[in-house]
Amino acid sequence: MAVDISLAHLDRPFDYLVAARDDDIAAPGCRVRVRFAGQLVDGYLLDRADTTEHQGRLSYLERVVSPEPVLVPEIAGLARAVADRYAGTLADVLRLAIPPRHATAEREPGPEAAKPPETPRPGSWARYPAGPAFLHALAEGRPVRAAWSALPGPDWPGEIAVAAAAAASAGRGTVIVVPDARDLARVAEALTAGHVPHVSLAADLGPAERYRRWLAVRRGLVNVVAGTRAATFAPVADLGLVILWDDGDDLHAEPRAPYPNAREVLALRAHRANAAALIGGFARTAELTQLVANGWAKPLTGGPEALRTLTPRVIAAWGVTDDSELAKDAAALSARLPSLALRTAREALRGGRQPSSRQPEPGATVPGPVLVQVPRRGYLASFACDRCRAPARCALCQGPLQITGSHQVPDCRWCGALAADWACRNCGATRVRALVTGAARTAEELGRAFPGVPVRTSGGSHVLAAVSDEPALVIATPGAEPVAAGGYAGALLLDGWALLGRPSLRAAEETLRRWLNAAALTRPAAPVVVLAEAGLPVVQALIRWDPVHFDEREVAERAELGFPPAVRMAAVSGDPAALADFLLSAELPPAAEILGPVPVDGADDTERALIRIDRHRGPELARALHAAQARRSARKESGAIRVQLDPAEVV
Known about the structure:
Blueprint lengths: L1 E2 L27 E6 L2 E6 L18 E4 L6 H13 L4 H8 L5 H5 L23 H9 L5 E5 L6 H14 L3 E5 L3 H13 L5 E3 L5 H12 L5 E4 L11 E7 L16 H12 L2 E6 L4 H8 L4 E3 L3 H7 L2 E6 L11 H5 L4 H12 L19 E4 L6 E6 L15 E2 L8 E2 L19 E6 L1 H11 L5 E4 L7 E2 L5 E4 L6 E2 L5 E4 L2 H5 L6 H13 L7 E7 L3 H8 L2 H15 L5 E8 L1 H10 L7 E7 L7 E8 L3 H18 L5 E5 L6
Parallel strand pairs: 5-10, 5-11, 6-8, 6-9, 7-8, 9-10, 12-23, 13-20, 13-22, 18-20, 19-21, 22-23
Antiparallel strand pairs: 1-3, 2-3, 2-4, 14-17, 15-16, 24-26, 24-27, 25-26
């Protein structure tokens, strides 16, 4: 029995007796109710046995909630492995893996079993030198694993559908995980167009429909599943392929304990099930590069001719040292929107010649929309004193002030207090200057600069899925860029310093991912102006469209400095007294190194310590942290401690 209790010292199976009345329906994997410590709790029946090693009196199951075996052996083993890897409990992982029961949906008859599709043709996979061979291996059921560097353009959903069809033609199942609902809609459309029977698991389906589709997968009626993070644990029968798109997106990181990442879970699942794997995106993470370096996966990249044909023309608007028009414009070097960026947008909107640091192709281009990527949403996300440049802070909590709209009163991003009479504490001045300009202010500025041109915004709670091919300015925050019919005629990537200046280990990697994702939405050879120093390695990687070598360099530098993914790292946080006691009592491996503790920004009375250890000794660290949590829960010690192994962000 696996009881639904998250206390670490109770993270083990328990034995119960099965009454004669339940003997026929108490099947391994079904939901049950049991009495535990005087309370009725939910649980899952893991196995049936004739004997027990328990040295005492056993209790009976209170009742079998449903005879449906929802916890299949593969998912039970995977959940236990994920809990062990992340120093968590099985109960927490099972809450992520199995949706809540819906009795009506469970009683309904399921659809007829889908017929497997025929072996597909390579299609656009032919642009990748190893693409046809990869599909052939999938059709033969071989466990090939690829680190996919997708070519720019709108073809990636169709390529995912072809890979899923190849695996399905061999009678094997596929799990496809994408970051958000917009990507899921595109993949589902491609699967439907490719005549691949599938189900989509999304959060907006509602509990009944989601459980109905999940049951169709569990019962083996459909063997191709596409979804967001929760679909990682979909109980697909005879799993043959796992696919993860855009593995660097932070939406793949689970915000609930034990905080697993979909990339690591799918890689672990593919390893345990001897299945193939296709993990990647336009960019590549250091973790995926590490998997390639370890030999677990092979690179799958586009051919040189395809890259030359499909990539946009990237122009760095700062740091130009030749005799170009930009270098002669001294004012443009300090402006947020240099003249090159404005001219590029203007020419793309009207279909004229495109200014470039390279020799442009002769003739005019087709007019179309222009994408403008802005790192932050809002109006003025941060501002400072116009005289002494001191950042504007809240008088109550010292949090950063923001302005949410034109003629709006500044307010605090932390406590929400208004600052109508703000004055600089250093010099007393009342005039301000922008530090971080948001998408709303950018849309306002560009609307004045391009009168008569439609301006559309996408970000926050208002995200556009697509825009037409009519000339327009589309202002979007990273991750909210809509797809343009026929591709964007040009793109401006603003405020590169705001992305690169983030206090994060992944700042450069994440910046390149956001830039590539935006630039990939443009037409082939369309101009993309990035406002960043041309000599930076991350900018050069964008110009050359070469994320692979950039991340190989990142991995080498992190290995030299002792940072993930070269090492396993745990972030342990809590109130200072509880954290100090935890670190003192935890029996960490001798090779573990503790960094900190230090105060957590924006959290009162909370500190955090980082613990790092050689990668091959990561399981030892996970076991030690789990044991320390078990001792705390057994003693009912006060003060919550949060343990997060391999956090997505190390700041």
